[in-house]
Design a protein that fits this description.
homodimer; alpha/beta; 5-stranded parallel β-sheet; 25% helix; PRMT5 (chains A, B); Protein arginine N-methyltransferase (chains A, B)
Amino acid sequence: MHLWLRLPLEKSEPMDDDLDNKVKNNNQTSEIVDSWELWNSFRLLCDHSSQLCVALDISSTLPSINSLGRWFGEPVRAAILQTNAFLTNAKGYPCLSKRHQKLLTAFFNHSIQAIISGRSNHKVSPVPEGVLSGDENYIEDAPVRHALSPYLDYVAYLYQRMDPLPEQERFEINYRDFLQSPLQPLMDNLEAQTYETFEKDVVKYTQYQRAVAKALVDRVPDDAVSTTRTVLMVVGAGRGPLVRASLQAAEETGRKLKVYAVEKNPNAVITLHSLIKLEGWESLVTVISSDMRCWDAPEKADILVSELLGSFGDNELSPECLDGAQRFLKPDGISIPSSYTSFIQPITASKLHNDIKAHKDIAHFETAYVVKLHRIATLAPTQQVFTFTHPNFSANASNQRYTKLQFEMLPDMGSCLVHGFAGYFDSVLYKDVHLGIEPNTATPNMFSWFPIFFPLRKPIYVPDGSPIEVHFWRCCAPTKVWYEWAVTTPTPSPIHNSNGRSYWVGL
Amino acid sequence: MHLWLRLPLEKSEPMDDDLDNKVKNNNQTSEIVDSWELWNSFRLLCDHSSQLCVALDISSTLPSINSLGRWFGEPVRAAILQTNAFLTNAKGYPCLSKRHQKLLTAFFNHSIQAIISGRSNHKVSPVPEGVLSGDENYIEDAPVRHALSPYLDYVAYLYQRMDPLPEQERFEINYRDFLQSPLQPLMDNLEAQTYETFEKDVVKYTQYQRAVAKALVDRVPDDAVSTTRTVLMVVGAGRGPLVRASLQAAEETGRKLKVYAVEKNPNAVITLHSLIKLEGWESLVTVISSDMRCWDAPEKADILVSELLGSFGDNELSPECLDGAQRFLKPDGISIPSSYTSFIQPITASKLHNDIKAHKDIAHFETAYVVKLHRIATLAPTQQVFTFTHPNFSANASNQRYTKLQFEMLPDMGSCLVHGFAGYFDSVLYKDVHLGIEPNTATPNMFSWFPIFFPLRKPIYVPDGSPIEVHFWRCCAPTKVWYEWAVTTPTPSPIHNSNGRSYWVGL
């Protein structure tokens, strides 16, 4: 059984019938109520019950965009369009304001159903051609069109007018808001299927090719092209896509290349050998079946190419791997990527919270998940968390990190509830060639990474005007790396995942 | 392993060494810090770990009494008395201000150990007679008295000067902060041992005797004494103490009495019969072995005497029992008690919280406990919750109740953490004769009731200046009665024990 709470969307004065008691008790005769606050109080009293949903009454006035935005992280099931929310077009038919149209489109994108309610204020449009001609029982009790038909027609028109989903979105639709445990690429070998999926990400390899090309041009002046052979090592070569991108960059720039392809997964190595034979690269590429952290290279590299990034940048332990691999990079050698930075932002995500809560333990609330975020509300702009730069030859370099961030919430939004933090990364491959999923700078049409989600055991209410302060730690031990996180403002949370008790990445 | 956090007791400016980072990060060069806030943030970050304790540094200035009071609900293990906290008496020896003395005595009462720390600012007192004379190794490395001995002597003197615990407190010492499930007197029969303990509560029965005496005098004018026989029914007679009190009241006032003693517990009835025989009350007392809710009385009573009260007044279902019993009360008859009221107040009680948390389930956080509250801090004055009046012949009387209470916290206290609510009752037996455990009006030297404690699943932080708003429901179903409770200000809690899922009293 689900319970839908019907609430006005706008910030409004309390209505006589449903808020009478509240007003009387407080001796207040007029008060602007943010309906999200009502929802939030009710939801908290019900201990975040997953059976509790929302139906929003939409009238002619709408609150600010940021205030509206909060609802996209909540279990809104229906938008009840009041007929008096409609305007009248030149022909006398109902229509909606641009802002209402945009809102409704966003609702459709979030599978929120539209319900039309109220008295008809508009004439009934003529029966559309064909609808009733052949089948007079089409609307059984209504041989004459229903009084609300014009509104329905208009809403249906808005729905049909929506842009079709881009191919990538269609592909990802089944992953929306589905929590996945991050990969453990060092401890586990990837499946062939996983390689195959990732290898299809053309955009990603194009960016790598551009980066390698730029590095080759910088490394080898035009007048030295014929006499210089650049040593390039691909560490974590998988089934060869970065080898291909590197060779294409060499061809494109006319630079000579000697490639070492280092890969620890023996299954991938077999496929890699076949590829090299097939492509006739035997003289160019040497395959090394070894973990980059223990391989003894016969010579030093000019360029080290790797793609060991997770959704949060360093979370698949790229820093630890490259620390091992940079031993065989020349002192003036280039690492591609040359740096990567993680980002977070606070979000409302009641669906994710409930899915995690269903496990009924603390450990699942102390785990980061890879997830195609969809039914969420972002509550503040992203901020940088950790940055790693390669190569890093400094003597006392550590991959431990600590950052404290303070987020100012979006303006005119009102109070909100933070269920956790969405995480992203951006990586500088080489100079101006970057790659990433940080929303403001995300590389378009790339599908290798979904965001990461760091949940909070107890969602935190952030009153209007208050910032939220969060602490992130990256901790390292001999056999594992993990994150800890805690909120301290407006109210302290427990430190999540202390000592990596619930979630870690094995070395 | 336990970790003691050493904190200054006073609200103070941050010290250079331990708060340096905080100050620098906030770009604040001077800031008054309430050390309780530091403790609270740390404790929340550590998720209320029961291994976390406090050692308080006591210097020459003390914060307000209410600010100090909060620490008595926290796991304070030691008070570190700085030598500069001491004054100098007329003879040149160290002593403490009255406020310091009072604080130290309170610490001793809470088993908090005193530690003396700092440079000696006072002369070393002469060796007390006898201490070193016979045993020169008494202080092995100090044939001369230790420089801090004068302070120690003074603290020992304060300890020895303390009033001895009253007998009742000594009796109850082992019950301090020990959570007990409330009795289920309707579903279960009490043990003989339980009767014996409660029967020793002389004060309680004296109050009942006074109430019955007053009622008899009101009921039977002096000129009707010889012709009138008052019918008095004791419902829930147990092993007879209320029968005895009633008969003594009759004797004292010279009124004639006919007593029915109704008791459902067959074991108690046997003892009751013996008592009546022993005392020669056969002509005065009729024993009825029956549940008052189903007994068919042969005549109606002038006075109905009962003692069915729990720590929270109505929580042992006195209202439901007396609803059944008032059938055989005359329309103008008197019920003793004539009313009772429950009270609550918010408290800090980290020890109780941790004991409940150790069960690792929600149900134990949704249960009310009978507990001799000791290591707690009361945070606001008590307020009334529910009142029941007897007899209640109104047609649509219900024993369901709902109350919303708003507590203003004690002045000058600062912020605090509420672990739950302490509950009490006060009962009007008859007119000005009352009985109860509500702290401001508690009947002295009565030991039948400890307070009740309603915990909160998640302790609630109440910022300085904010009230706390709490809702209490008394809910009734055909076979059980239960309470639900929830906080809505400053932040909403879940509704505790909804539908009586975790805790109820059976009918």
